[in-house]
From TrEMBL:
This is Nucleoside phosphorylase domain-containing protein. InterPro entries: Nucleoside_phosphorylase_d (IPR000845), Nucleoside_phosphorylase_sf (IPR035994), Uridine_phosphorylase_euk (IPR010059). It comes from Apolygus lucorum (Small green plant bug). Phosphate binds at R114, R158, I159, G160, T161. Coiled coil: none annotated.
Length: 360
């Protein structure tokens, strides 16, 4: 543990005190220090000389993570580096954030060659790749980053695309709950030869707050419902157009109608891990996706690129409204960091770069 880390716990390891309770869910002393900063459920991290976040090209000993990220409030994640770079510039305009003259947004994790990360004032915009394994790795390291940076009560958003179940393309879906392909509301992971199940829960209050930000003049619907998360794009989502297919159209439609009756409104490939890991960390989170095809009508995506591009902006707009409302209510954040690494140790900084470049 850092010598200057003076955070203390409130002494209630196995439960929540009245002061820890939020309106919709409790944040226990397992996941928060008394000052509201993120606490990890892993005592090993405190004993490490340096914690290298391999896939972000950052390290607790090489970078001044408090200086770089201490003012962060919102972590926005999406699939591709390009999309999240575009979101970074979009949110910069929306919240009126100004970069110093002659500077550009920098990909903070460029030396990892895996994820892209941009900081815009209190907002982090990060690409999470495709599927549960990719977003799971990222979440471990971003949650640890929140701990090392002493971030207080962060809010995580996943912004992405999905297949609708009875919803037209362009519909915005705010997930009420994530379920797996068997409609189970938990993330199952083999750990040391045993299956561990973690509830895939999202913040109910955050769902209501986001839904309330839909504007009547928006030329599309914004709905809530269950999101089915699969481990595969083709067979796992009941598509007939993969390299392999051992079922027919009737069997596919029977499955899609079954999940529709279970109140599933869309499907994608990241929400289960996202919901489970953020919930386990005591972090408020939400999944906001746009549908790009109604799976009850077909498997392939036929919308033109310019239409898809506009559809993908719709979840970003909703999250932007939430962030702007928060900043207007709480006051704008002062931001002294715009993307250049704050290096504490040049030797360790070089080591982190080498480790991130070489780590498979």
């Amino acid at each position: 543990m850092d010598q200057d880390d003076n955070r203390v716990t409130n002494g209630h390891q196995n439960g929540c005190t009245a002061n820890d309770k939020m309106k919709d869910e409790d944040v226990s002393s397992e996941t928060r220090y008394e000052d509201g900063t993120v606490r990890l459920k892993n005592a090993n991290i405190e004993l490490m000389d340096q914690d290298i976040l391999y896939h972000l090209a950052l390290g607790s000993g090489s970078h001044d993570l408090v200086e770089m990220f201490g003012d962060v409030k919102f972590i926005c994640m999406g699939g591709t580096p390009k999309r999240m770079e575009q979101f970074a510039y979009y949110i910069m305009g929306e919240i009126g954030h100004k970069l110093p003259t002659g500077t550009l947004l920098q990909d903070i994790s460029q030396y990892s060659y895996r994820y892209s990360m941009y900081k815009v004032g209190p907002v982090l915009s990060i690409s999470h790749g495709m599927g549960i394994p990719s977003i799971g790795i990222l979440l471990h390291e971003v949650i640890k980053l929140m701990y090392h940076a002493k971030v207080k009560d962060p809010v995580f958003f996943r912004i992405g695309t999905s297949g609708g179940i009875g919803l037209e393309g362009g519909t915005v879906v705010i997930s009420e709950q994530a379920v797996d392909g068997l409609l189970r509301p938990y993330y199952e992971l083999p750990v040391l030869g045993k299956l561990v199940q973690r509830p895939a829960m999202l913040d109910k209050r955050l769902v209501r707050e986001l839904k309330a930000l839909h504007h009547p003049e928006d030329p599309y619907d914004t709905v809530t419902g269950k999101t089915l998360c699969t481990t595969d794009f083709y067979e796992g989502q009941g598509r007939l157009d993969g390299a392999f297919c051992d079922f027919n159209e009737n069997e596919k439609m029977a499955y899609l109608e079954q999940i529709q009756k279970a109140n599933v409104v869309n499907m994608e490939m990241e929400s289960l891990a996202f919901a489970a890991l953020t919930h386990n960390a005591g972090i408020r989170s939400a999944v906001i996706c746009v549908t790009i095809v109604d799976r009850l009508k077909g498997d392939q995506i036929h919308a033109p690129k310019e239409v898809l591009d506009e559809w993908q902006e719709r979840p970003q707009k909703l999250v932007s409204r939430y962030i702007k409302k928060f900043l207007q209510t709480k006051g704008r954040f002062m931001d002294s960091y715009c993307g250049s690494p704050c290096v504490k140790s040049p030797r360790r900084f070089k080591l982190v770069q080498q480790e991130s470049e070489n780590y498979d």
